[in-house]
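We store chain and fold; thus.
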Amino acid sequence: MSNQSLSTEASFRRTRVLMWLLLVMLHLITSFHRVSFNVVAGLLTADFGLTGAALGNLAAAYTYMYVIMQIPGGVLVDRLGPRRIALLTGLAMAAGSIMIGLAPTAGFVFIGRMLIGFGGSVVLINIFKFQAGWFRSSEFATMSGLALLFSTGGALLAAAPLALAVSAVGWRASFIYFGIFTVPVALACLMVVRNTPRGEIFSAAGMPIGEIPHHEPRAVNAAVIAEVLKNRRLWIPFLINFGTYGGFVVFAGTWGVSYLVHSYGMNIGQASGFMTVAYLGYMVGAPAAGYFSDRCGSLKIPVVILVGCAVFFWLALAVWPGGLLPCWLMYALCAIIGFGGAATVLSFPMARAVSRPGYTGLVTATVNIGVFLGMAILQPLFGYVLDKGWAGMMVDGTRIYPVTAYRLGFLAAFLFAVVALVAAFCYKEKNPEN
């Protein structure tokens, strides 16, 4: 290979990584908003006089819009391409974050969460669409795992760092500043990101891109949508997402801090440290799952292991004698639930393996509904269970729930995880029709 070809190949790789990182930055912002309520839950409850069910609905407002927007969002990604979608999603999330910071009532918080959900609903789908155009099929699971690894930095920001920011400037200012930060990221995506290498200098220079598919945009109509929705094989990755990630977010993103504060007597900073461990577990599990899958050629084996971790976590919390686990064991279990939540990484290559090429946005969006449908159902259900078990105790306007109430919520999450495990075992590793 000539020096010019080597230079062109290096330039191609640097360019696609830069564009990919900008899109991942938007997903980092999405991850921050997904779990930020864990730290500010008590403050919102006190400021707006919320019940557990009301707080669960506010947290789930984000996921309601996710569920609504998955199919339309997948169609838009396939039609408009990653560049324009990145701008629209970034600006919507910025507006929603600022609205939460300025909200005079809980209703405005709800609307702000819906706006963030509207913008964030297609961010991950957009990344997958970009990867389908710029990376080889054998790189897809690895890049998906890395995308979720880096974007989990947003969830880490929503743990201890957000707690420090809230202590310093208040929860309102924290959301306003984060919304302002989102705007230049969205504008950078518009200026830098390109949908596919086709027509770029790399193709003109004879860049040996190899197996990277360059599908022309295909028309997405009602018949195509019906074909995708009728594909029964998509139910397996859908149910894996439904039963796994929703439970992970319920603990690490909404109720975990409150559980540790109420049951163990920790302060918010100490409890947030446990959530940081959970997200570190996710950050390890996501790229490890993608790398292992691409290298060994198996999707089923790593998925069964990861979902099994989630089942073990919820079962331990629900049935541990005496109710409260030792703190050292809680640290280990937080890492395990993070590792188990990474099962969603492989649900998307599973979906691509059983679907026609050219509709990455629509197919991954369909499977992604399972993630947010699980969250939308389990978050308010968990709050409802807590309210039913509430003994009437309040501190500074915040309801204090007993350990028995939390254990019933953990049991509900355990049942969701069992559904995911059954689906994982049903996956056919080798299918001659694919």
Summary: DSSP finds 19 helices and two strands in the chain. The first helix runs from residue 3 to 35.
